[in-house]
Design a protein that fits this description.
The complex is a heterodimer of chains A (380) and B (582). Chain A has 380 residues and is α+β, with helices and mostly antiparallel strands. Chain A has helices at residues 35-38, 40-70, 87-113, 131-148, 154-166, 169-173, 190-195, 258-265, 269-274, and strands at residues 24-25, 76-79, 83-86, 120-123, 205-207, 223-224, 227-228, 250-255, 276-280, 299-303, 315-317, 322-324, 331-333, 339-342, 351-352, 354-356, 362-364. Chain A contains 9 helices and 17 strands. Chain A is flat, with a radius of gyration of 37 Å. The chains are: A alpha+beta (380), B mainly alpha (582).
Chain lengths: 380, 582
């Protein structure tokens, strides 16, 4: 056990007294020599294993380059268990993974089979500094204090502290313009902005352009000059008549002006507040509403944005008239003023008062009477 | 002597060149032989470190193609179902990486997988450190750094998850915005400042990008560096074993064994992440579509490490207070689960080493790890915390569980609301009892040796069960236990009748200490252990002659019965036959 390298070969490389290297073998740990320590054949076999793994690793790098060049990025292959997958990704991942993994396994095999497996011991020392060092540090501190006069010059000390406290203030002040109102939001407070939407009296309700038909296909009318156009027969972006919506049905809808506003403002902010759902039930199923006569023949309009933390809500159970938020499962009863029946939301879903204009299309009668979306401090 | 190749000569020359300028050989002479103890659980931290390196590496590649912009573009890449769809540049470039950059999807998936592994490895590493008491003096700072790393790991993960601007990531941001808005007093303004106005705005992704690729990784890198430097200086803790004491470290020297093992392990972790990134899909953003604030998909799930927060949000009752008169809204239902609960979890986590040190009054340096059973209260506390966490996590998956097991979501939530309060204390008690039972078993082993399961009939007819002395290793491990004594109860007044002003604080500390150390199965005295092991050795000695006849088969055949010697008759008939023959 005096020798750290019990295996054959280069034992005399480390023949010096091990204590000088900072550690010594643990004498009282029973140690069983490995096959590679005693049998030169086994040692050579281990050597061959390690070398083959390094060799294979190199081979996989070559295969990686071949796959990178040779496999088209759009090729899809069927692989059992995994299904249809992109051939390039699988090939690149596999070859790169194997190339790297094999280096690791080779190194471990090398360490386990051919490097010494005798545990050695080193002494620890308490982390605490020697008394002498601490005293020296103290003396130095005292010297510094004395020489700087930090203790004597009270005025300097106090103004220094004051300056150090104040100097980061500009950095904080500059954060104010993290929000720079645009010309559309000029002069409005956050609470104002959160409390108003695009809806106004007489604003037509149109079906959401991203509305997906019952067959679950995107409503696309193809392309003209590379620009997508809505399908003429699609319900998307069309104003809605009461008869478009069967009893039990649901339509995601937006204000008529929204596409134009989005085009001008270049953001989705208006959509995030104005999105609604229209549901239709038998008028006698409606137990209560947030305002008298806010429905049209049993059609109710509710905000689509959850009052909990703002997820869009779309899971509607026709039979119970319950609306469930997919994020945190707040449940609202649309037949009963959109009140919360379960879950973490504290507020009912705001209802939009709707009516019919002279051409027979659904319109809003005003904006929401309470803020939509998640609560905020000033909401009240 | 040693043979020196040209490469080694060049290396030696370089070493000298560097040494003459920075004095590096002093460091090398001290550290090339530095001893590292070996245990499988010490690899958990290594996995965290290596997966973080992979995160950095793949992340740098991704920055070459990703465009952190919310400007609207029309998609015109290889993925046909989204052709012609309006989307943000961020999502467009993420699709581009996935479909039009060769190896891009591999990099994206490796980045995501290694991030998940990074956080998971940190969590499990933290469990190891906690349950073995490795956080005790002198390693409290490193524990704090670890808690910081875990926190930044969560932020790094969430900020990255939110960048591609797909439907799922946008939904996550919307929830985050809702949480910020729920902070009392400053929430609304904070949300407006963060998002440059209303949600979703056009700035947030580019802001988040800076945080994700510079600020957080920079902080993590700095903390990781300090973490490793401290491990290096303080030397790694070790489990008890033969020859291992609080004052030494037993293991393998850095060069070559530890370097080969640790270096090799880096390549193994890296290689496995590459394999998984190539073979297992993660976060298929092309399925979710671009983000729209009025769309969502059912079964929306965050990455695993955010699950507990999402669960807390789901489980919380819908409490809200409006202050009359001023009309200010306090959204308890949001800021308690999303900010107060994680705040408490991470604060208690960070302070735990200091709390335990104060309660126990233990000021010694600890380099030898505790077996979890030998610190029953700590172990029970840890299990209690993990139970709480897991229950929140279950809450985060309540919709998936409801569908998979055909349960009502409402019942799951109601169950969890009570379980979160009732189950963790039960787990505490059960864990502590289990630890004590294990301690009792250890005591038995010391006093009587371990039960071999073999019954021996002595010549005078007595049956004994053979106990065998413990191996040197077992003996070292079990006897490493330290019996702590709770802090003594303080006196109300000293001998001169002067009132003890600190009585109440000291009494509290005494009670807590009693609670912490009060349950313990004391280790037998050295003499008792010796007698016990000697007795077991005697048993084994009685049995020893019989072993001469045994081979493996017979031990198996006659396990637990009277030992049967080969050639010995088993039945009367056989006996008669034998006698007859002789």
């Amino acid at each position: 056990m005096s020798d750290l390298t019990p295996h054959q070969g280069n034992a005399d490389d480390h023949g010096k007294a091990p204590a000088k290297l900072g550690y010594s073998p643990v004498a009282d740990i029973p140690h069983k020599p490995r096959a590679t320590d005693t049998d030169p054949k086994a040692a050579r076999r281990a050597e061959r294993q390690v070398a083959s793994m390094f060799l294979l690793s190199m081979l996989f790098v070559v295969l990686f380059v071949v796959a990178y060049v040779g496999i088209d990025k759009t090729t899809v292959v069927y692989i059992p268990v995994m299904g249809e997958v992109g051939a390039s990704n699988v090939a690149l991942g596999f070859t790169m993974g194997m190339a790297i993994l094999l280096i690791g396994t080779a190194a471990i095999q090398w360490a386990k089979k051919l490097m010494p497996d005798v545990e050695v011991v080193q002494q620890r020392h308490d982390m605490v500094s020697p008394k002498k060092a601490t005293l020296e540090a103290e003396a130095n501190y005292e010297r510094g204090k004395e020489e700087s006069g930090f203790a004597r010059f009270r005025l300097i000390r106090r103004t220094l502290i004051g300056a150090m406290v104040l100097f980061p203030i500009p950095l904080v002040v500059m954060l104010r313009d993290l929000w720079t109102p645009t010309k559309f939001t000029e002069g409005e407070s956050p609470a104002d902005l959160l409390s108003t939407t695009l809806w106004t009296d007489g604003m037509r309700i149109i079906a959401d352009g991203t509305y997906q038909g019952e067959d679950n296909e995107v409503d696309s009318g193809g392309e003209i000059d590379g620009e997508p156009v809505p399908n003429k027969d699609s319900i998307a972006h069309r104003p809605i008549r009461p008869e478009d919506l069967p009893v039990g049905g649901l339509i995601a809808a937006i204000p008529l002006d929204l596409p134009e506003v989005e085009h001008i403002e270049h953001n989705l902010n208006a959509r995030g507040k104005a999105a609604i759902i229209l549901v239709r039930m038998e008028p006698d199923e409606i137990r209560s509403q947030q305002g008298d006569g806010w429905d049209v023949e049993g059609i109710l309009a509710y905000s689509k944005i959850c009052t909990h933390v703002g997820c869009p809500i779309a899971l509607y159970e026709q039979r119970t008239h319950h609306l469930l938020c997919p994020c945190h499962q707040s449940t609202f009863d649309l037949a009963d003023s959109g009140n919360v029946v379960f879950g973490p939301a504290a507020r009912r879903m705001p209802q939009l008062p709707i009516g019919v204009d002279e051409e027979g299309y659904l319109v809003a009668l005003s904006d929401f009477q309470e803020p939509v979306g998640p609560s905020f401090w000033e909401r009240g | 002597m040693t043979t020196t190749s040209p490469v080694e000569k060049a290396g030696g020359a370089t070493a000298t060149y560097v040494d003459e300028r920075v004095g590096s050989n002093k460091f090398l002479s001290r550290n090339l032989g530095k001893v590292f103890p070996d245990h499988w659980s010490f690899m958990l931290g290594e996995i965290a470190l290596y997966s973080f390196i992979v995160v950095l590496l793949t992340g740098v590649f991704l920055t070459l193609w990703f465009k952190p912009s919310m400007a609207e573009v029309v998609y015109d890449g290889s993925y046909v179902p989204l052709k012609g769809v309006m989307m943000s540049e961020a999502y467009d470039s993420a699709l581009n990486i996935s479909f039009d950059v060769r190896g891009g999807l591999l990099l994206r998936q490796m980045h995501h997988w290694s991030a998940l592994i990074f956080i998971a490895a940190m969590a499990v590493h933290m469990f190891r450190v906690f349950f073995t008491g490795a956080f005790r003096k002198p390693r409290e700072f490193n524990w704090l750094i670890g808690v910081g790393l875990t926190t930044f790991g969560l932020l790094a993960g969430f900020s990255g998850y939110s960048l591609p601007d797909d439907l799922l990531s946008g939904t996550g941001l919307q929830i985050a915005r809702g949480i910020v808005q729920a902070v009392p007093v400053v929430g609304t303004w904070a949300a407006f400042l963060l998002f440059d106005g209303e949600f979703p705005g056009t700035e947030f992704i580019s802001r988040l990008y800076g945080v994700h690729i510079l600020l957080i990784p920079g902080l993590i890198l700095a903390l990781v560096t300090i973490h490793l430097m401290l491990v290096w200086t303080q030397k790694h803790t070790q489990f008890p074993g033969p020859g291992r004491t609080n004052d030494n470290v037993v293991g393998y020297p850095l060069l070559p064994v530890y370097m080969a093992k640790a270096g090799g392990f880096f390549f193994i972790v890296f290689g496995i992440i590459a394999l998984v990134g190539g073979l297992v899909t993660i976060n298929p953003i092309w399925i979710f579509g671009p983000y729209m604030p009025d769309q969502v998909s059912a079964g929306s799930q965050p990455d695993w490490y955010i699950g507990f927060l999402d669960g807390a949000l789901r489980v919380m009752p819908n409490w809200e207070t409006i202050i009359p008169g001023v009309g200010w809204t306090i959204s308890w239902n949001i800021f308690i689960p999303a900010l107060v609960v994680p705040g408490i979890i991470f604060t208690v986590l960070g302070l735990y080493p200091f709390i335990e040190a104060w309660v126990t009054g233990d000021k010694r340096e600890h380099n030898l790890l505790d077996r979890p059973r030998n610190a029953p209260t700590r172990t029970a506390f840890g299990m209690m915390a993990i139970t709480f966490y897991v229950l929140l996590w279950v809450g985060g998956a309540n919709d998936i569980i409801a569908v998979a097991f055909d349960l009502s979501i409402n019942s799951i939530i109601w169950f969890l609301r009570f379980a979160l309060i009732i189950v963790p204390p039960i787990v505490f008690v059960v864990t502590r009892r289990t630890c004590l039972s294990l301690q009792r078993r250890d005591r038995e082993k010391l006093l009587h040796g371990y039960e071999s399961g073999r019954i021996l009939r002595l010549p005078h007819g007595e049956f004994i069960e053979v106990h065998q002395p413990l191996s040197e290793k077992d003996l070292a491990v079990i006897t490493a236990k330290h019996d702590y004594v709770p802090l003594p109860a303080p006196d109300k007044a000293d001998a001169d009748g002067v009132r003890n002003k600190k009585y109440r604080a000291q009494m509290l500390r005494h009670r807590l200490s009693e609670f912490f150390y009060g349950v313990n199965v004391p280790k037998p005295s050295a003499a008792e252990i010796e007698a016990g092991q000697h007795h077991a050795a005697h048993d084994a000695e009685l049995e020893a002659p019989l072993h001469e006849y045994e081979d493996d088969d017979q031990i198996r055949t006659f396990h637990g019965g009277v030992l049967h010697h080969p050639g010995m008759p088993e039945t009367n008939a056989e006996q008669l036959e034998q006698e007859h023959r002789s």
